[in-house]
Structure formats: C-alpha cells, structure tokens
Amino acid sequence: MRVGVIGAGAVGGTIAALLARAGHEVQVTARGDHLAAIARDGIRLTGVWGEYLAHVSAGDLLTRSQDLVIVATKAQDAEAALRANAAFLVGIPVVVMQNGLEGIQSAHRGAPRSDIVGGLALYAASFLSPGQVTVTVGGSTYLGGELLPAVYASKILGAVMPTIVTGNFEGAQWTKLIVNHVNALPAITGMSVQEVVSDRRLRILMTESMREAVRVGIANGVVFEKVQGLSNGILRMLLRLPASIGQLLPLVMAARMGRRPNPGSTLQSIRRGQPTEIDFLNGATVHHGRVLGVPTPVNELLVTMVHEVEHDGFITPDDVIARVKAPVRS
Predict the structure, then answer these.
(1) Among 8, 89, 100, 214, which is least packed, fewest CB within 10 Å?
(2) Whole-structure pTM value
(3) Whether residue 158 is found in the same domain as residue 250
(4) CA 277, CA 77: separation in Å to the nearest integer?
C-alpha cells in the first residue's frame, strides 16, 4: 500500500521504517539535515524493534496520492502541515499521532475532507542524529476517533507494531498526558528521565505535577483509559496517597524504561535547538486547570522553566528546587 508519513522524526521515522520493512511504498516529509540524510541514505532504524535501513521517498511535502497518511509532527506544527499537504489527503484516513489533547480537533481544521483518526505512541523513540531513529522502549500505538477509519488504520499499523483501537480515546489522551509529565524535568536539567527520577527532590516534584494533571482530568469528567499500566483506579488513588508513597509511580515508570538513558521527547527538541511541545504537555494541564478553576502551580513553573531553557540553557537541580515557591515535602 501507499503510505505517507508527514513528519519523519522519532515517532514518524519509526513508523515509516517499519512500514517500509513490511513492503509498503512509503513517502515521508522531513526538514533540513534530516531530510537530506533520508533522501541520500534512507532511514536507519535501530533499537528494540530491530535494525533496518529503509529506503523511502522523501521531500518537503507529499507528492502523490496515498492509501493512508500518518501525521507525526510536533503538536504545534500539525495543522499547518496538514494544510500544506491537503491536496493528497482528501477522502483518505489520516492518523494524527500527537501528544497533548487537541490532535483530532486541529486535524479536522487542517484536513476537513479527511477521515481523522487519533493516534498515541506509547513506545519510546529517539531521533538525535539525521537519518537515524532508535526505539529505546517498545510499546503500543493507541488509535481512536472515527471507528471505521481507526479499524482500517489498525490493520495496516497492527501488522508492524502493537496497535490497540480504543473507544475511550479521550481517556487514553489524558493518561498519555500524565505519562508525558516525565518530560519536563529532563528538558529543564539536561538529565535523562532515569537520572531525574533517581533524584528524590525532582522525583517528588514530578509526582506533584502528575497529581495536578489527575485533578484537572477528574474535574473535566475524564475516565482515564488504561495505558502503560496506568488505570483510572491507579491515577485516582495517586491523589489519596502521601507524596512519599505517590513517588513510587515515576519510579516504576522509569524502571520500565530500562537502563538505556531515555532523554524524553522534550529534551530531544532542546538538544536539536527546536521549539518544544511543552505548551501541549504540562501546558495543557495548566490551560485546562485555569478553565476549570483547578490550581496547577507546579506545572506552571515547569512550563516557564522549559521555555527559559529553550533560550538560556539548562537549570541545575538545586536551582530548580530553589525556585519552587512551596516545595512539595513527603
């Protein structure tokens, strides 16, 4: 089948390489040195899902009709990317693999004549050098939204990677949002997720950012979908536990990542000198908290610090803790 991948970074590059390995005719879009490397040498996939050099068609934009399109840009770039490729998206399923909570809505604006499917990548992939993507931790891809297009997309993606269609995609988005709260502190400090979680002070701060997100989700009427071992019951219990016990959650999450340092997607963007998705991650917690009247002071601080790091460089763990106005104590 012909499959287009708009945004062949860590997530999109992994999907493109796996589909090409399965024999699909894959066309990708990318930018800069990454595009040049793919056009010249292909996408080199390494990590837990094996090694493969995928030779794919690559350019700034799609140039042909497709049977399925995957959008895996940063959340802030998705709508513009869809509009730019609109000529080849009419009447076909478009899977929007986006962090945050607004992926389906922005996709409908950018591609109003397409069948939109929401997608969430629960595997960990890194894109730190042009033309190469590495899957550091395996995991499922969740699809939801319009049922028939989601099932159609799952038949294609499910043949190359673990794929789940859920009827509670909003709940899955919120659970993934909480999973993504491991990203901010690595981006702020320049440390891996595992290194951040091993620092008790940062770990408790991370836990409180997650607890704020759970409070906001509950106030929004969300029933959290089971994702990566996190369920509605576990996340609601997180609010009832003292911080000394609640901090076990990020410890367990870090342990599942294994020993290979996981930088997280936000730190990867920092290292590439690109704008991050923080406004769609911790920033989504802040936004919805303001709408619902739920305080989110820890997330507000983390968002502010990530934006500072985008321009001024990393902040030491000691300085992070010093800037917490009301430190969270066990």
Answers:
(1) 100
(2) 0.92
(3) no
(4) 10
Contact present, 28 and 19 (Cβ < 8 Å): no
Which helix H or strand E contains 130, and what residues bound it? none
* pLDDT tens, N- to C-terminus, the chain (330 residues): 999 999 999 999 999 999 999 999 999 999 999 999 999 999 999 999 999 999 999 999 999 999 999 999 999 999 999 999 999 999 999 999 999 999 999 999 999 999 999 999 999 898 879 999 999 889 999 999 989 999 999 999 999 999 999 999 999 999 999 999 999 999 999 999 999 999 999 999 999 999 999 999 999 999 999 998 899 999 999 999 988 899 999 999 888 887 888 888 899 999 989 899 999 999 999 999 999 999 999 999 999 999 999 999 999 999 999 998 654 444
Among residues 143, 166, 189, which one ends one of the domains? 166
Residues 271 and 135 in one domain: no
- Name the residue type at position 205: L
Is there a single domain that holds both residue 187 and residue 288?
Answer: yes
Domain that holds residue 229: 172-322
In a domain, 330, yes or no: no
The domain that contains 292 carries what CATH number?
Answer: 1.10.1040.10
Q: Which of 166, 196, 231 lies at the terminal end of a domain, its last residue?
A: 166
Tokens of 74: 């940063």
Cα separation of 78 and 214, whole Å? Answer: 26
Instruction: For residues 60 and 50, give the distance between their C-alpha atoms in angstroms, rounded to a whole number.
Output: 27
